[in-house]
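As a representative case, the lines below give one protein's residues and fold tokens.
***
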Amino acid sequence: MDRVEGAMKRKSSWLGRVLLAIAAIAAGGVVHAEDSRAISAAGYRYYEVGDLDAPRPGKTEAAMMLMGGGDWVPEAFHWWVERAGHGRVVILRASGDDNMQKELYYDIGGVTAVQTLVFDSRKAADDPAVLRVVRGADAIFIAGGDQSRYIRFWKGTQLNALLNEHVRAGKPIGGTSAGLAILGGYSYGALDGGSVNSPTALSDPMGSEVTMDRDFLTMPYLSNVVTDTHFAKRDRLGRLIVFVARAAQDKGQDDIVGIGVDEDTALCVEADGRGRVYSLVDGYAWLVMPRRTADRLSNGEPLEFSSVPVTGVGAGSRLHLDGFKVDNAAFTAMASVVDGELELHPN
């Protein structure tokens, strides 16, 4: 009899959770239930894994994990999870599903729970249920994909404000590929629906394919920075120099810095601005710091920009973002763009 009653209770509990999930979907809300870990709602999909009621094991610390795309670097994620106090991580994305959530929870480990929000519209970025999830995060990770969707869906919304609030509260944030591209004070928005390559950007730096954005997110030490990703593999030094030149013109000052990160590589930045590189492939973070404006940046004309210092930050280096100084640089070089053609000479 006890076994029958137990089975009936379990069936009743399961049915209650299913009905709760159905009600949440109809209301555009989110439900936290053991058997209901994937919810579709108006403008977004929601996934979860782990124990959302578990107490946070430790305190959070301010930290940034800047990933260049490709495979995750476990050592970098362990560093980041530690600064999240081994608590709850929220993954934000505008395509895909819960694959990153599973990798973080099961393969990286060390967190109490992971929640994923996949956005399909701008409306979802002001949804109270979405904001509750983000507000409860100990750390936020922005996935790869198409950064133009992040700008169009999030910029100027309550979610945008909440992301900046999260960082001001001293909690970790990270991004890979498109998720890194939007973390700088200036960013390449890919708003024309494509992804401009270096030759195209250099030949027409003021052209319609070089779509720049600014004042989206406010990250420590990155207010004058343009970030770029998949760096060496996709030959993006030329286009990052263009992005820096465009941002400097937009700002009317010459203090814009470019940071490119290689694939399978992460630049991890402490609260005091000290950064180190973790990589699966001996990759680098590339520091582009001209400290002056371009020699020629005009409509319909190729870029002219001589003597642009480029510094490689490797696993044995330290980057100090408070002044953009590098200890034990992996390499130093000088880049010059002559009539839209990039030349790079080691120092």
The longest strand covers residues 305-313. The two ends are 83 Å apart (CA to CA). Residues 1-36 have pLDDT under 50 and may be disordered. The domain at 53-346 is CATH 3.40.50.880 (Rossmann fold).
